[in-house]
Amino acid sequence: QVRLVESGGGLVQAGGSLKLSCAASEGTIDSYAMGWFRQAPGKERAFVGAISWSGGSTRYADSVKGRFTISRDNVKNTVYLQMNSLKPEDTAVYYCAQGMSRSHYVSSYSSWGQGTQVTVSS
Question: Which regions in the chain score pLDDT beneath 50?
C-alpha cells in the first residue's frame, strides 16, 4: 500500500497563494487517480479536486474552480495542489488520496496522507 505525505501547508493572508505537495514515500502513484480533500473543524471531509493517472483530466469542486489547480509528476511520484486567491473559508486540513477514478466520494479512495493544515486569515 502506498504511503502518502502532504506538505506545503501554512498560514497565508486572504488573496494569497499556497502550493501543496503530496509525495509517495512508499509505493507508486503513476497508475492511479489522485484526489485532494479538505476538512474544516466540525465539518465532514469534502472533495476539492482530482486528477487522472496521466494528468490529462481534472475535476474540481465548484467552490475552488478557477482558483485551484491540480497537477502531477509521475516521475517524481508527486501530486500538487496550487491554491490561488485563497479565502478564509478555505481554511482546513488538506488531504491527498489515491483512488481508481476521479471520484468525489471519500469512500472511492483507498490510501490517504496524514494531512497538512492550511489557514487563511482575513
Answer: none
